[in-house]
Amino acid sequence: MERFIYLDNAATTKAAPEVVEAMLPYFTEYYGNPSSVYGFAAKNKNVVDEQRDVIAKALGANSNEIYFTAGGSESDNWALKAAAEAYKDKGRHIITTKIEHHAILHTGEYLEKNGCEVTYVDVDENGTVKLEDLKKAIRPDTILISVMFANNEIGTIQPIEEIGAIAQENNILFHTDAVQAFGQIPIDVDRCNIDMLSASAHKLNGPKGVGFLYIRKGVKIRSFIHGGGQERKRRAGTSNVPGIVGLGTATERAVRTMEERTGKERELRDYLIDRVLSEIPHSRLNGHRTERLPNNANFSFQFVEGESLLIKLDMKGICASSGSACTSGSLDPSHVLLAIGLPHEIAHGSLRLTLGEETTKEDIGYVIDTLKEIVSGLREMSPLYEDFIKKGHK
Ligand SMILES: *Cc1c(COP(=O)(O)O)cnc(C)c1O
Q1: Does 326 qualify as catalytic in the annotation?
Q2: Which of 29, 111, 347, 353 could hold 342 in an S-S bridge, CB 3.0 to 4.6 Å?
Q3: What is the per-residue pLDDT for 9?
């Protein structure tokens, strides 16, 4: 039988059957517009509110602080652009980090062209934000700090509680892109003093194109999409009822299965990391050894080209990634790997493997064996490796 092993769950996940099943009636049976007044549409309005409750509960938030969007990118854009506008009288300075997703980085660049100043704080060699640098970046005109909860490439989990405390002491809004973290690690918006939080259904076995932005009560945030009065007049557009049901069902399921699922993933991840590092010479793990997403492993292999590695893995039925999906296809090495201090040539030889709930130990065993074979095959063709060996290295 031909193998198919999907290890790119940071890019997207398979929708769970129970999620799809919960969505289906809202396409064909209960298709009314939740804004309509007749009884037929009432079920839709109620179901949307129920999903808001589920999500709020998962975060320790209130239901009226959850705003549905079309996914993580929209939520990130909304948080930054609308905060910049609503707080422009206080200042125009925003602090974020060098390792954010492009939905934050490119929004930051856009805002810089439109009168804002953005500071991109450094991370250390593990990909953890340097808190001292973050504190030093704060100015009287700083209106927003945006730091991702966990990184999508190297998996490092940030000290969000500490960052929230710093933001609070300085009376600055705190946004976090929790697209990778939501559903994988417990999040409490009050404990971490989070004012805004982005998440996306398709990263937690839900459908693509739907997500939410948590906005703490009292935060002055303008409408992002203008039109009808949906989402408390802050995000116009007929509610994506099936998508929202999918998001809510995926959230409920992720919370319910979190402990067991991530426990199993963590064990497999560590098995993968330990064997790769011990059995493949000149390899390194990128990201924090322990403060990392339960399903993320990111390696660099010296003398190997990441793209070639991906193609060869694909031929063996293994789906993986060399950086974020958005940077694949371009020749620039990942901004995240450069930010943790990897030289270009090593960043180029990187591989991200992100496990899913269906990944088995047998899959991982096959991946390790295949990887060993491919890496040594590629090295045999590398003139740089040949020189290295000639110089007496092993
Ligand atoms: C996937 C991802 C996004 C984008 O979410 P979409 O729903 O695909 O728009 C943003 N931030 C992070 C960290 C992500 O992993």
Answers
A1: yes
A2: 347
A3: 98
